[in-house]
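Reminder to self: tokens first, then the designed residues, so the page reads top to bottom the way the pipeline ran.
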């Protein structure tokens, strides 16, 4: 991963966030359990699929991530 590939956006609100860190408003117990909604690399909305066993989130540019 290069410096240009470093996460730059919040996964909960999509706003710019150096290092991909959550904003204080986005960092709370409720959001800790929620799947990401925005890509950390390009801030695009993710296609999120939630199931009883976990979740998957897919960015059209950066691919898929999954829970634990």
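Designed residues (68 positions):
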């Amino acid at each position: 991963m290069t410096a240009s590939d470093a996460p730059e956006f919040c996964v909960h609100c999509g706003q710019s966030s150096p290092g991909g860190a959550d904003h204080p408003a986005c960092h709370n117990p409720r959001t800790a359990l929620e799947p990401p909604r925005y890509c950390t690399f390009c801030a695009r909305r993710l296609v999120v699929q939630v199931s009883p066993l976990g979740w998957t989130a897919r960015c059209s540019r950066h691919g898929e991530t999954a829970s634990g």
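The two ends are 21 Å apart (CA to CA).
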